[in-house]
Every structure is written in structure tokens, then in C-alpha cells.
Amino acid sequence: MPKITIDEIAAELGVSRQTISRAWNNKTDISEATRARVLEASERLGYKPSRFASNLARNSRSTAIGFVVESFRNPFYGELIADFLDLATTRNWQVAVSSHEGTPDLELVGRLANDVDVIVGYLSDPTEDIARAAKGTPVILMDRASDTRGVHSLRLDFDHGMESLVIQLRGRGSRKFGMIESQNLGRVYTPSTRRRAFEKHVGSESARAVVVQEAGPNSMAAGAQGLDALLRAFPETDTVIAFSDLMAMGALARAGEQGIRVPDDVRIVGIDGLSLGEITNPPLSSLGLVGPQTSERIAEIVELSVADSAAAIERRTIVPVPVWRASA
């Protein structure tokens, strides 16, 4: 028989899914009569909470968060989740981490909505579709804006972040900038917000010095190929900004193979701020996106949305900050 869902139990009884969750988690803010109705209907229809939801029932004060990342193969998401888990532990939150590799976003959102209080993640579908799939569970979109009720957002301000990076690079002697841009494998290319910020702040001559490389989650090879293409087309380039730290690491490795001295001949800068950049040769400068500040902003929206799932759309913005190491 198909698995009974929390929404089917709610429809059977004419109550909200939150009421079903409260009954199963032994919350105190529903009547004993309602709790008894929910448990009786759940047993009669064969509904059982997921193992994750059952763990939550042991602690009625715990908040459950579903965190969706693009890929476990990219160390950026590992550092982001590690920071967030540190914060979640101090708040007694439980976190389920998922990747939407191989699973459509909306299907994954629908699954998580049955078990968690808030969904946080990198989701690309229209916000109205995400809200419908979430079935009333608040969603926090990473690096995307939202105008849909119940779908909140944490946006990265690459405009001001790139402006600061370019100003400081010019102070270090940079004059001719180039960029290695990323295109997701198998997808139609759309200029990234990182590229648009780059083109705005490096000046009209450098703005055209962009090469686009198809790149998967592990994109070091694309970075190496991008450095070759960029210096072939724009040999006067003295500073390379890569779409990600992984691409920048690939460019660093290729520079070493070609006898290009970094930073004497060419400065190389990534975008992410990974701690992994500390062990490259030379250590990688980067426009930093990860860190406690990011987790704190996510937590602010989580707390507001849990307190009132019908709250107005919450938006937060983070300005990336340059992390200076020897490559620039």
C-alpha cells in the first residue's frame, strides 16, 4: 500500500499539518481531545512519523531544519553546513542535510516538509512552486530573492563585495583584470551575479576579459582550462578572479605547471573563502562567503519563521569580505 502522509491525516481530520505534528511530538499547545483524535486516526490509517520526526518527539523544544545543498562533492557546502551545525547545536536544533543531485527540487522539498519545521537551501524553481511543495512549511532560499509569502531569503551582495575586492586589489597593484566564469554542466548559460558585479567594477577594458567554462561540482579542471583560455585571449591580464575557490585552485595549479609566478606575474583570487585555500601553493586569496556571520543570518530567519509561519517575508543580506592570502 502507498505510504500515508501527514497531509492525508490532516485532511481526514480537518486540521492543519502542524496540529498533527504537535500531537505526535507531545506538545502542550493542543487539547487532549485533539491529540487523541490524531493518534487514533494515525493508527487506523497506518501513519507513522519518519525516524527523524520520531527523534524530535523526544524533545518537544527542538526545532527541525532541513538543509538542502547542491552537491556534497563541493567543499563549499561542507564548510557552510559545518558552521551551521555548530550554531544549531547551541540552540538544540536538529538538522537533516540533503543534496538535490538526482532528485528534483520540488520533490525533495515535499519530502522534507513532512518532517521538519523549516527548509533552508539552494533551490532554483519558481518561488510560488516551492511554496506549494512546502505545504506551509517556511522555506529560506540561499542566494536568491523571494516575493512569495512563506519563502524567505538570504542574499549575497556581490555588488558591494566585488567593489571592495577590486579596490583593494588595485591598491596592491592590479591593473588588468580577467575572470574565469562558471557554466553549470548541461545547462543554458546565464551570466552569474558574480560576473555582473565583476563587469561593473573592473572598468570597461577589463570587463570584456571573461572566459566561460563548463564546470561541475569539482571544477578544478575547469579552472585550469579557464586560465589557459583567459591568458591566451588576454595576455596582458595581471589579476584573475575565478567564480569559485575550486576553479581558482585549478588555475593556481596550472600556473605552476606553466611557470607563471603567483602573485608576481599574475594574482589569482577565488570566491568562497574556504579554509582549504590555506594549504594551496601559494595560499589562496578569496572573496569570503562562509563563516559564522552566514549561519547567524540564517538562524535569525529560522527563529522568526518558526515563531510565526505566516510572518511577512523575511530578507537578510550578507556582503562578502575579502580574505587575503599570498596568491594576491
Strand tally: 12
Gap from first CA to last CA: 61 Å
Poorly predicted tracts of residues: none
Helix content: 40-55%
Q: Return the structural class.
A: alpha/beta
Give Rg in angstroms. 23 Å
Q: Which outline best applies?
A: elongated
Order of helices and strands: HHHHEHEHEHEEHEHHEHEHEEHEE
The largest β sheet comes out as: 6 strands, parallel
What does this structure look like?
The chain has 328 residues and is an alpha/beta fold. It has 13 helices and 12 strands. It has helices spanning 6-13, 17-24, 32-45, 51-57, 75-90, 105-113, 127-134, 158-171, 193-201, 204-207, 220-233, 245-257, 292-307, and strands at 64-69, 94-99, 118-121, 139-142, 151-156, 177-184, 210-215, 239-242, 267-272, 285-288, 315-318, 321-323. The strands form 2 sheets. A 6-stranded parallel sheet has the order 2-1-3-4-5-11, with helices on both faces. It is elongated and about 75 Å long. The model has no long low-confidence stretch (mean pLDDT 89).
What characteristics describe this protein?
328 residues, alpha/beta, six-stranded parallel sheet, six-stranded mixed sheet, 13 helices
Give the secondary structure arrangement, pairings included.
Elements: H1 6-13, H2 17-24, H3 32-45, H4 51-57, E1 64-69, H5 75-90, E2 94-99, H6 105-113, E3 118-121, H7 127-134, E4 139-142, E5 151-156, H8 158-171, E6 177-184, H9 193-201, H10 204-207, E7 210-215, H11 220-233, E8 239-242, H12 245-257, E9 267-272, E10 285-288, H13 292-307, E11 315-318, E12 321-323
Parallel strand pairs: 1-2, 1-3, 3-4, 4-5, 5-11, 6-7, 6-8, 8-9, 9-10
Antiparallel strand pairs: 10-12
Helix pairs in contact: 1-2, 1-3, 2-3, 5-13, 6-7, 8-9, 11-12
